[in-house]
Prior knowledge:
Layout: H1 13-93, H2 99-180, H3 185-197, E1 204-208, E2 211-212, H4 221-229, E3 242-244, H5 246-249
Parallel strand pairs: 1-3
Antiparallel strand pairs: 1-2
Helix pairs in contact: 1-2
Amino acid sequence: MATEKKTEKDRSVEDRLKALFQLQTLLSEIDRIKTLRGELPNEVKDLEDEIVGLGTRIENIANDIKANREAITGYKAEIEQAKQSIAKYTEDQNHIHNSREFDLLNKEIEYNRLVIEHDEKKINDAKRQEQQKSEELERATAMLDERRKDLDMKKEELDDIVSETKAEEEKLREQARDLELNIEPRLLTSFKRIRKNSRNGLGIVYVERDACAGCFSKIPPQRQMDIRMRKKIIVCENCGRIMIDPELAGVQQEKPAEAAAPKRRGIRRATKAE
């Protein structure tokens, strides 16, 4: 026949503290497992974001190179058109005897020569830009390949850790759920709130070297005695964590070495000279 679960009224403060500390131990172990793989999911996410960014960058560089090549094609067409115009105007000058019209044709020839000079300069600039963009594209592509390899490695590492710790974590979570059923809801809620607000995730701590093991604030002797008495739930006045007697928590602490009593020097009596 299954034993009946104790009501909260029947449970002593000592039982409650012991259950809370056992729960804390389980939750700390779960936190350790999460921390073990905690950075890897972030690293995987960062690599995935970086790969997307590199893909966009490569696409933009490729578009710039394409636009440069189209511009070069356009400049070359303009140069060819200007050369044809120069040839035409030069030929026309051979059939004109009016100085005014001759000068006008000269201006057209000069204008088209400037067009050619301008477009050749633009072509050279575009070619230099294309060379720079091609080198940038090569570097970005190499970086993308490297990041993809890093991502595959990190994903494999994460999968290994998850497969190794999943069963252990599920077992710990099941034990924690069973323990929570035996803890007063109000006390459990307070414990979880304290744990959530604490930097190290500790909701219950023991006294260590006359101080709170959570925030290291000194605890007065009378309050330490109250904690050892286990008659009521006591919290640290500084950080609000629930306090437990180290002995109840099963923590072995080193006893401070006793100071050796000072040796008394013997008083040597002076003897009278005979």
